[in-house]
Amino acid sequence: MNGGCLLLSSSSSSSSWSFINQRLQLWGTSSTSRHKLFIRSCLSSAAEAAESGVESGRRVILEKVDKELSKGDDRAALFLVKDSASSAALKCFGAAQQVPQRLYTLSELKLNGIETASLLAPKDNTLGAIERNLLIAALFGFVTAWNVFDFGPEELLYVSLAVFFSWTLDIVAFAGGLSNLVLDTIGHNISQKYHNRVIEHEAGHFLIAYLLGILPKGYTLSSLEAFQREGSLNVQAGTVFVDFEFTEQISAGRVTATMLNRFSCIALAGVATEYLLYGYAEGGLSDVKTLDGLLSSLGFTQKKADSQVRWAVLNTILILRRHEKARTQLAKAMSEGKSVGSCIDIIEKNIDETDI
């Protein structure tokens, strides 16, 4: 007993209720309100103890998940999550409410407050402006140096060839990774909006993946962080997933509708998040192109591809709207560099059972 309240266990429920009844009789049969308050207090304490046990168990599971992911054992990590998804510990994994899949018109999307033109054609104005300013600064510096050092035609030719060679090398060898690294690093340091947008974008990918039953494996929030972690300029910032089931289906040439639906929504989750927060998307053009390429490789006609994309847009945005609190807290955790397991814990804590 703690503070006059008895926590009931299954092994002693009969004797415990007998004890409660005896206490109620001692208080007098006319004290109905006091009896109700006493029982409510007992049940409330029992519920709090159960919730505490669930959270403790979830933390243990997620620590194991982090350990398996750090070892590179994706299958073991996914098994742990799937095995716990049927219990209260990881109730949200793959549990998102989804809209029926059918052909949705653009008018139906507009009725739900969705303008696809602002979502499916992202243009990064922030990095675009930075790139233009860098080019202007470089040209100004070159002209200044030419005048100061009295460069001749030969020096001008050498400098032009060096610049052209560097640009070509970056495009061919690193797929533009070096220029992306420079622009992204500058963007994160001079534009707080750009920095926040990238975090929110990746939080959208992470949340939608988890709620649809795809386990996130890790994330990076800048090209510099991705380069430091992977040691390659060909790797950009983003969220990666435990996707061996999907890649196996791709290799076999048979992708199930369920798996395609999941990855269609995950691909569009970043631009959908930006759209909800800012009214338009800037980042995520590569995500949209990747989805278009996937649908094309699967032999989708344009009409069928449009139907798939519209459904995915509507489904993703409605999920994000429903779980705005979880996404906000997740973005905060990701900005602090929390582990995948800690991020999942944040999601579970901020989504009520009635919302899934």
TrEMBL record:
GO terms for molecular function: ATP binding; ATP-dependent peptidase activity; metalloendopeptidase activity. GO terms for biological process: proteolysis. It comes from the Eukaryota. Coiled coil: none annotated. This is Stress regulated protein. The lineage of its organism: Eukaryota, Viridiplantae, Streptophyta, Embryophyta, Tracheophyta.
